[in-house]
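Researcher: I'd like a structural prediction for the single chain below. Treat it as a standalone chain; there are no partners to consider.
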Amino acid sequence: MDGVEDVEIECPFCGEVFGILVDTSHSSVEMIEDCSVCCHPIQLSLRFSGGDLVSVDAQPG
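Model: Treating it as a single chain, here is the predicted structure.
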């Protein structure tokens, strides 16, 4: 799919890494995603430039 990328997130609670699909057609995305391992909510801030991931910030939600 164009504009969709699999991004790996490290959970700030349990430290496990898991993937999520995000729309890269925006310059930034703010979202809350539950960890697929421990189920705690994670507040995500993702930044993109030209469809490429520039930064990921994962904080306890």
